[in-house]
Amino acid sequence: MDTRLGPLPRVDDPWVDARRVDEGYDEGWSEPTRWTPHGPVEREDEPRRGSRLPGLDGLRAIAVTAVVLFHLDPSLLPGGFLGVDLFFVISGFLITRLLLVDVAATGAVRRGRFYRRRGRRLLPAVAVLLLVVYLAGTLIWRSELPTLRGSLLSSLGYVTNWWLIFDHQSYFAATGRPPMLQHLWSLAVEEQYYLLWPAVIVALTAAARRRGTNTPPEFRRLALVALLLALASTGAMAVVAIHTDVPYATDSSRVHFGTDTHGMGLLLGSAVAAWTAADQRRRPLAPRGNRLIDLAAAAGLTVLLWQFTALDQYTAGLYRGGLLLVNVLAAAVVWAVARPSSRTGRLLDRPLLRGLGQRSYAIYLWHWPVVVVTRPGLDVHGPSWLINTARVVIILVLADASYRFVERPLRAGAWHRTAAPTLSGTPLSGTPLSGTPLSGTTLS
Asked: How would residue 281 be classed by pLDDT, with cut points 50, 70 and 90?
């Protein structure tokens, strides 16, 4: 068995599905290739069909569930906000692999092509969300217009996090209704990373060409740069937290929202992707070694879930280096789970978890507007468990509609391709979701 992650695909290989290369790295796809000093070539001992990196959708499902539970009611999962950090690690890992495909195949990052892919992947669903929220704010919740205008403008420029900082908005404490687009701060951090990180890779690639260095070993240098930047981001968070006495004297929103102070997850994911791409050794690992890595992955995931329950926004150590440790653990779990031979990854790749993970982007987009207009005891009255159940159903219905009718058709390049995987035989069949747009589908 192979200890490395699935190898990077050759984008010039006629056996690689172009659409899979375009969109597949958000879904965790890999192609059977191996590295040589002259670049990637196909492995003769592996099939030509592409294989998925197992378990990443399952990790996405865990991350988005944690975030939604925290926003429904922080007492349900006090550390659920850390799910965003798990998202950051996964995104940094997959996006860096995607960028390194171009470097391996062409010797450069085709940034225009990369940004077109990102736009096709992310913008349509956000555009629909912004339109619906704008109409809802102007027609129904008119009291939200003062913050809605700022939210919309900052969202269009993917600078929501900085608008929230300069407008002194709080992530953890709010008087009145929070901004209806506040949750887009994390997408803003990712988009800013998409602008800066390819430039770093371009600079390192140009330096490697001048030195005449082979590409795979140069990826180790990229991993080291990502690690150093992650440490710098952690240091920036600690300096601000100590200087302003977070979370005692001041709110932690500045260090939580800031790209400079909350970039360690994206960068650690990038470091893992770059290091594994640089590793040309294809030495098989004994079954016992694979079992040990699987046990370590399961233990790491268990500790990560425990952190979701044991930590909260008042844990001062998080802002003084602790968040780096959370992200290091998340990065280790992502690496271990994404190995093709990972049994833990296969357990996380069950239909329900895979389905939730595939819809995690849509769930994240739609959950927050639903949460802020259905506050128990303020907007809606009744038993809190019933209200939260109804909120979850509404979120899943909206997310499924977005996934089916916006994301999938536009990513495939046609509006008429709206079929989605079914959920027969999973725990959702026969639940209250039957009869809704979610019935018979996977939350993927």
From this structure: low
